[in-house]
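Task: sequence in, structure out. Protein: Mannose-6-phosphate isomerase-like protein (Cupin superfamily).
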Amino acid sequence: MAGDSETRPWGSWHVIDVGPGYKVKRIEVLPHSRLSYQTHTHRSEHWVVIYGKATCVIDGVTTIAGPGESVDVAVGQAHRICNETDEPLSIIEVQRGGYTGEDDIVRLEDDFGRAEQAAAVAAEA
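Result:
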């Protein structure tokens, strides 16, 4: 829902707008932090850097994007955003797909143990 937000160990996200088939977020990444390396089953993502420098890893390929530059992530591609600088990083993320819920995340690697937690829960099911 628009207005939703969460603080995470790497920074925060804030929903700007949401509607049928899309969600728009502002993502703030703290210096020397990164999001989990993850995939999505139901959505693609388009990232636009607002300020800072984003190190983007998509299917193991690393690219750097600065203010005004954008990066596309297709459905199912493994991806992560990293901020390897001393400055804050802000991006706008446009999600497109039939489902944009926060539970459409498969964490492959995570600096905060969330990939291991998800694997343990799946093993118990």
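Confidence is low (pLDDT under 50) at residues 118-123.
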